[in-house]
Design a protein that fits this description.
six-stranded parallel beta sheet; six-stranded antiparallel beta sheet; transport; nitric oxide dioxygenase; iron; 2 iron, 2 sulfur cluster binding; binds protoporphyrin IX containing FE; 22% strand; alpha/beta; oxygen carrier activity; binds flavin-adenine dinucleotide
């Protein structure tokens, strides 16, 4: 098995060498793709039609992985999962060498005279270890690289929110609380984004999604405004660890912002199948009451299951009759919470704010699971 020697040294070499090209990132990205596509024109078809070189996902992802995964052994599961996930892009083993070579060439090109052979070696070593783990993950995967799924219902719940249900053509196994990759070939081919099923796995295999169209978002706006019943989408690679621990006897708190409600609904559906003993509190926040797009369904669940309570809040709707303020602050008005399991899901900002609140309330971090939808 491949192992990196002198981890501290390697990390230093990687950081030092990246600092030589950091300010020319756009040029490095341009050269990186040009090199790949000139030597292997067939690889162009793996990438989105409109590529934003400045926000290059692949180059940024590789550089981040190589720089932050100082000890790849610790990130074994993540890297194997990433390799499995790459099957949806039609990545083949031989492509790894092409991409790794282009990366080092591109950095060397813009680093100037200070670039040395020890930098070449450091990037080649780190990349090789990461690539080997990704390839092993891909090879061990017995699932199809993606699943086709037909849209069987689509409902606009607010100007920028849709709830839709799809039926995969083959059974797709995932755990409540996980997320899937989704591509909408009719409108945005080869752009994959992650979305969280809003239901636990069902016998009829249908999967519900809750999507909010963000700003100029390519995929989310297509899913909310253009997707129709009968369209085919593709799904891939269940991922994520925001799952219920069946052995836990602690009461649970779910904190959801906007469509962050989706994985919470999935976990709630799982709880409805077996829970008798745990009190469960849902805090659901949005800017205005129109954004509380699934409140009727939440209230129906709360009426049916005596162990469930729901608190709603609006941050930007002064006449809303529920709580006022950010959901992260509203949680702190209730409690005490130091004996509970926490599940937090929503925008990056909302998750960050909630984690801060929970730290202040001295909730041990091992009891908190979260999914952040943003950076
Ligand atoms: C684990 C996970 C689970 C997710 N589950 C869901 C889900 O169930 N429902 C859901 O609606 N979304 C979910 N997301 C977010 C989703 O994956 C996309 O990031 C989002 O839909 C935007 O994609 P896009 O292609 O429309 O935007 P892009 O074209 O990627 O981005 C366009 C612009 O919008 C900005 N932007 C991107 N995301 C956000 C955001 N969340 N808020 C504000 N600005 C943003 C970008 O910075 C960029 O400037 C999840 C994300 C993760 C990481
Ligand atoms: C060390 C090796 C690699 C790592 C760490 C890596 C990592 C990643 C990550 C994390 C993403 C997701 C980025 C996002 O969604 O924001 C991504 C996207 C992608 N990767 Fe890789 N990758 C590697 C190798 C490869 C190879 C060899 C190919 C083959 C050409 C490839 C093709 C792609 C494509 C097509 C995308 C989507 C790009 C886009 O949407 O713009 N990757 N990669």
């Amino acid at each position: 098995m491949l192992r990196l020697k002198g981890m501290g040294d390697l990390a230093r070499l990687l950081k030092e060498s990246w600092s030589l090209v950091e300010e020319h990132q756009d040029k490095v990205a341009g050269y990186f793709y040009a090199r790949i596509f000139l030597s292997h024109p067939d690889l162009r078809d793996l990438f989105p039609v409109h590529m934003d070189i400045q926000r290059s996902r692949l180059l940024n992802a590789i550089v981040t992985a190589v720089q932050t995964l100082e000890d790849p052994e610790k990130f074994d599961d993540y890297l194997r999962g990433l390799g499995r996930d790459h099957r949806k892009f039609h990545v083949e083993p031989a492509h790894y060498e092409v991409v790794g070579g282009a990366l080092i060439e591109a950095m060397r090109q813009f680093a100037g005279e200070q670039w040395g052979v020890e930098y070449d070696q450091a990037w080649a070593d780190a990349y090789a270890v990461i690539a080997a783990k990704m390839l092993a993950g891909a090879e061990a995967d017995t699932n199809p690289p993606y699943w086709y799924a037909e849209v069987v219902s689509h409902e606009r719940r607010a100007s920028d929110i849709a709830v839709f249900t799809v039926l995969p053509m083959q059974p797709l196994e995932y755990r409540a609380g996980q997320y899937l990759s989704l591509e909408c070939p009719r409108f945005q081919p080869r752009l994959w984004r992650t979305y969280s099923p809003a239901n636990a796995p069902r016998r009829d295999n249908t999967i519900e999604f809750h999507v909010r169209a963000v700003g100029a978002g390519w995929v989310s706006s297509a899913l909310v405004r253009r997707l129709e019943v009968g369209d085919m989408i593709r799904l891939a690679a269940p991922m994520g660890a925001m799952n219920l621990d069946r052995r836990s006897t602690r009461d649970a708190v779910f904190v959801a912002g906007g469509t962050g409600l989706a994985p919470v609904k999935s976990l709630l559906e799982e709880l409805t199948r077996y829970n008798r003993t745990r009190w469960v509190h849902v805090f659901f926040g949005a800017r205005t009451r129109d954004d509380l797009y699934d409140l009727a369904e939440l209230n129906r669940l709360a009426a049916r299951y005596p162990w469930l309570s729901v608190v709603t809040a609006c941050s930007d709707d002064p006449t809303f009759p529920g709580e006022q303020g950010n959901i992260s602050d509203v949680v702190a008005r209730y409690g005490p919470w130091n004996e509970h399991d926490f599940f937090v899901s929503g925008s990056g900002q909302m998750v960050k704010a909630t984690m801060r609140t929970l730290a202040e309330l001295q909730v041990p971090s091992v009891r908190i699971k979260y999914d952040s939808f943003g950076d």
